[in-house]
Automatic annotation (TrEMBL):
Keywords: Isomerase
Organism of provenance: Roseateles koreensis
InterPro entries named among the record's database cross-references: IolE/XylAMocC-like, Xyl_isomerase-like_sf, Xyl_isomerase-like_TIM-brl
All copies of domain Xylose isomerase-like TIM barrel, residue ranges: 32-284
Domain of life: Bacteria
Name of protein: Sugar phosphate isomerase/epimerase
Pfam family, one: AP_endonuc_2
GO MF annotations, alphabetized: isomerase activity
Length: 305
């Protein structure tokens, strides 16, 4: 494989940054309002916010479409690849429903995480076959599939391993999901990204956390699901800055979503949490990427230190 390295192009807005509904407590309509009020133009949707709406899926879909927020993507399809027989058939049915929901919401990206199932094969050919099949199911709906290597994945747990399979599958709407948390949790060297085609990175999710190491898959999973913080709030700020600049220099021009699972934030008012996300976006745009940031009403807020 050859390293990919495109000529950087300057961008001048925070429209590349968005929030994830999993970060926020409360009903869907309140989440949408808080995200928009904080100045974001896009949102990453979790399936439970849609199917769990008390007035039903149709109402939830209408709320998203009426919000004016662009849908960054829809998550998450788990444990799809490497299964056989009735387990594979079951997951295909699940995938079809996830794709249908994503399409109804106007989401152009479906996030699929590497399998953690003890029943999943680690055979590369089987995984490639299944990823190609998933992408084929999504293709008629105009949806891209972003395959992400979970840091506690059973067979695929690093970004370059996920990329090798995506590259082998070689399907137009199959690409990579890059998550800063998983890169830091596995201490993956950033030069591994040099061999990834930036046009095949369909989504980048950003988060930090409050300690340096997660030594076991169990620690990685527990930290990921309960203790993430926004970029600039944790102890990996320098590494995260380097990662974002690295992706930018490689030529990535897609979306960044703040995927922050945090139990404390689930107990706090929505505007408070959304404002922390806004400060994080300003820090990334102005301090890390050195972009000029126009905010609603020409109001400028203090970037994070």
């Amino acid at each position: 494989m050859r390293p990919f390295n495109k000529v950087p192009q300057f961008s001048s807005h925070i429209g590349d940054f968005g929030m994830d509904t999993i970060t926020l407590a409360g009903p869907l309509e309140a989440k949408l309002a808080a995200v928009k009020q904080a100045g974001f133009s896009q949102i990453m949707l979790a399936a439970r916010d849609i199917v769990g709406h008390p007035q039903g899926v149709d109402t939830a879909v209408n709320l998203v479409r009426a919000s004016g927020l662009r849908v960054t993507g829809f998550q998450v399809l788990r444990d799809f690849e490497g299964l056989g027989g009735h387990l594979h058939d079951y997951k295909v049915d699940i995938a079809k429903q996830m794709i249908t929901l994503a399409s109804a919401l106007g989401a152009k990206v479906l996030l699929a995480c590497s399998s953690t199932s003890q029943h999943a094969s680690g055979d590369g050919n089987a995984i490639v076959r299944d990823l190609r099949k998933l992408a084929m199911l999504a293709l008629p709906h105009g949806i891209k599939v972003a395959y992400e290597g979970l840091s506690w994945g059973r067979h695929i747990n690093e970004v370059h391993a996920a990329w090798e399979l995506v590259e082998r599958a070689d399907f137009p709407n199959l690409g990579l999901g890059v998550d800063s948390y998983h890169i830091f949790a596995t201490n993956t060297a950033l030069d591994r990204l040099d061999f990834i085609d930036p046009d095949k990175i369909f989504l980048v999710q950003l988060a930090d956390f409050m300690w340096q190491e997660t030594r076991t898959p169990e620690e990685r999973r527990d930290t990921a699901r309960h203790f993430r913080v926004f970029p600039g709030e944790g102890v990996h700020s320098e590494a995260l800055s380097t990662l974002v600049r690295k992706l930018d220099s490689l030529g990535y021009r897609g979306d960044y979503s703040f995927e922050v699972f945090n139990d404390d934030y689930q107990q706090l008012p929505l505007p408070f949490v959304a404002q922390r996300a806004q400060a994080s976006a300003l820090w990334l745009a102005e301090t890390v990427l050195h972009r000029t940031v126009p905010l609603p009403g020409a109001m400028r807020l203090r970037a994070m230190n």
